[in-house]
Amino acid sequence: MAANASSVFPIGRTRLLKDNPEMTMKDVDTFVKLNKAPQSGIVKGYKFFCEGFIKDFEVGKREEDETVFIRARRFKSFRKNEEPHYLQMSFYNEEVVDHSCSCKAGQGICNHKVALMMYQAAHYSFLKIDAVPEVPSKTSMPQEWHKPRSAGIHPEAVDNLIVRKPELKSEGGPKCKKRAIGGVESNLYNPMPNYPNPEFIREFLARAKTDYKETQFCT
C-alpha cells in the first residue's frame, strides 16, 4: 500500500483535471470512517489545505486498467529548500484502491493524505474546473509591504516610549532590588494645561480683523 509513488504513477501525468475522480463529501466521509482516520488528522489535513501546503497536484490515468492516479507534494513549511512529503492515491471506479505517503505515518491514513483527498481533490471535483489553477507569482500581485507583520506591532507616540537596558538573569549572583520604573523616558509636558475659552478666541479674532484689517492670522 505504501509503494513508491514514482514507480507506479503513469508517465502521462498532467495538471488537467478531466480524469480527476468525481467525489463528494459523503464519499470522503465514508473513506475516513473505513480507514479510522483520527479527528486530529482530519483537522490538520484541513489546515494544510487551507494554508496552501499542498503543491504540484497532478492527475494521471493508466489506460490498461483505467486506474486513475493523483499525486502531490506537501511541504513542511513555506521554505522550498526543505524536502517535502510525496503523496499519491489511486482510484478504480471512483474508489480508493491504494495510497502512499513518504512521511513516517505513510502506511496508514496520515493527515497529508486527508489533505490530498478530503480537501484538495474533492475541492477540484466540486468546482468542476478543467485544470489546476496556476499559482500567481509574488511579483504579479499587489505589494503587501504596508501590512504589519502581526497584530501586536503598531505605531506608538515617542512620548510613550521608554528606553531601558535588558534585564539579564543572574545565575547565583546577589539579588538586587529592581526599580519600579527604569530607563530613559520623555519628560516633555504641556506648559499650558488650560486653553482659553473657544468663545473668547472667536471674539478676539473678530475684533482683531475689524481693527487691524491688514493683519494676517493663521488659525
From TrEMBL:
<keyword id="KW-0862">Zinc</keyword>
<dbReference type="GO" id="GO:0008270">
    <property type="term" value="F:zinc ion binding"/>
</dbReference>
<keyword id="KW-0863">Zinc-finger</keyword>
<dbReference type="InterPro" id="IPR007527">
    <property type="entry name" value="Znf_SWIM"/>
</dbReference>
<feature type="domain" description="SWIM-type">
    <location>
        <begin position="86"/>
        <end position="121"/>
    </location>
</feature>
<keyword id="KW-0479">Metal-binding</keyword>
<protein>
    <recommendedName>
        <fullName>SWIM-type domain-containing protein</fullName>
    </recommendedName>
</protein>
